[in-house]
Amino acid sequence: MHKVALLLSLALVGFAAPSAIAHQPVALKASDKTPSAGPLLVDGTVSFAINMSFTKAKQVRAFRAGFAAGDDLALQLLIYDEKPEKNLAKKQLPLIKVTSPSGESFTLPITERTSFYEPWGKRNYLYLGRTSRVAEAGIYSFEITSRAAGRFIVAVGEREVPGEVVRD
Known about the structure:
By secondary structure, the chain is mainly β. It has a single domain (23-161), classed as Sandwich (Jelly Rolls), CATH 2.60.120.380. It has one helix spanning 2-20, and strands at residues 24-27, 40-41, 48-54, 60-67, 72-80, 95-99, 105-107, 114-118, 123-134, 138-145, 150-156, 165-166. The protein is globular, with a radius of gyration of 17 Å. The termini are far apart.
């Protein structure tokens, strides 16, 4: 009996593992033009993959994420390692502006083109920029402005647990 329970437990862990280690997807809509219009990630430490596409330059997509004081604000910009995105020059990549609850802001620097394979989605990606900072308590705003057409992913958070997304 104990062997059966152990085998069943191992099977369930193995079955659940792929979904437990993949970023939770969130799609930004064309109507998500301001942080208040976009979705709220209730806990910004949970790993989310914010997906968006642009048809031209100067389009904006935005969202918000909540943090407690001292939380790790982990942020990444990625693209598919596919045409046309992988052929975009640095000046064609989107700008990500992050504004804290107290009004301080920064733009994510584009510093790399590091490839990696994501086994659950069976896709190759390129990291373009990554940062990790200590958060202040409250709601952060994230605004992504396109400088060319393309599909992009902004990853927020690192904890691989289910997260809550609220849309007004």
